[in-house]
Automatic annotation (TrEMBL):
<dbReference type="InterPro" id="IPR055316">
    <property type="entry name" value="RSP9"/>
</dbReference>
<dbReference type="GO" id="GO:0035082">
    <property type="term" value="P:axoneme assembly"/>
</dbReference>
<keyword id="KW-0970">Cilium biogenesis/degradation</keyword>
<keyword id="KW-0206">Cytoskeleton</keyword>
<dbReference type="GO" id="GO:0005930">
    <property type="term" value="C:axoneme"/>
</dbReference>
<comment type="similarity">
    <text>Belongs to the flagellar radial spoke RSP9 family.</text>
</comment>
<dbReference type="GO" id="GO:0060091">
    <property type="term" value="C:kinocilium"/>
</dbReference>
<protein>
    <recommendedName>
        <fullName>Radial spoke head protein 9 homolog</fullName>
    </recommendedName>
</protein>
<keyword id="KW-0966">Cell projection</keyword>
<keyword id="KW-0963">Cytoplasm</keyword>
<keyword id="KW-0282">Flagellum</keyword>
<dbReference type="GO" id="GO:0044458">
    <property type="term" value="P:motile cilium assembly"/>
</dbReference>
<keyword id="KW-0969">Cilium</keyword>
<dbReference type="GO" id="GO:0060294">
    <property type="term" value="P:cilium movement involved in cell motility"/>
</dbReference>
């Protein structure tokens, strides 16, 4: 939105947009039509872009779409058992999910990345033996690298569990134990905290 009255949907992110956006550094300008020039692009890549009829620039709108996609992929999370995987491989919202207990809600192992699993494929058969294939089909936060990239806090005397990402500063996830209420929101600068390994 340019006037906070009329809103329009962003276009879906492509892999090319995500790769291009990762090369950019600095904060957003606030103008969707603003064009960033690539600062670190090889002569071959620049020549290839010119041959394809494209200039080595990316618009802020495309950068915003790609940044949202990156945030969703890297720190978009859900509680354990909120979704189930059927024997045919489709994933659905679990109608029987009644929330995590307070004890479970305090553990990082009770939260999963809501994206295609990466670490799960590398687990041994012995490690997979303890997992329920219908609910434990995603990557758990407890194995995130670097260790310590999440904070867990209790709010309102334990009535709400809040997780914050230190990798994408500004991402806050909440869950009300023993209820179906959970979600996450991002209020940040759109910059990944690349200094995190040195801060821990």
């Amino acid at each position: 939105s340019l006037n906070c009255v009329e809103w329009s949907l962003l276009p879906p992110a492509t892999e090319e947009m995500v790769v291009q956006a990762k090369q950019l550094k600095g904060r957003f300008e606030g103008d969707p039509s603003f064009e960033y020039e690539y600062t670190e692009i090889s002569a071959e890549d620049a020549e290839r872009l010119f041959e394809d009829g494209k200039e080595p620039v990316i618009k802020e709108e495309a950068r915003l779409v790609a940044t949202i996609e990156q945030i969703d992929r890297e720190v978009g999370i859900v509680p354990r058992r909120a979704f189930v995987k059927t024997p045919r491989g489709s994933v659905h919202e679990n109608r029987n999910f009644e929330g995590l207990s307070l004890t479970e809600a305090k553990k990082l192992s009770s939260y999963f990345h809501f994206t295609e699993p990466v670490n799960l494929k590398n687990k041994s058969l012995l490690e997979k033996a303890d997992l329920d294939p219908s609910t434990d089909f995603l990557d758990s936060l407890e194995h995130d690298i670097p260790q310590g990239s999440w904070t867990v806090q209790l709010e309102k005397g334990g009535a709400v569990v809040v997780l914050r990402s230190l990798l994408w500063l500004g991402l806050t996830f909440y869950h009300v134990p023993k209820t179906k209420q959970y979600g996450y929101v991002y209020f940040g600068t759109g910059e990944k905290n690349l200094d995190l390994p040195f801060m821990l």
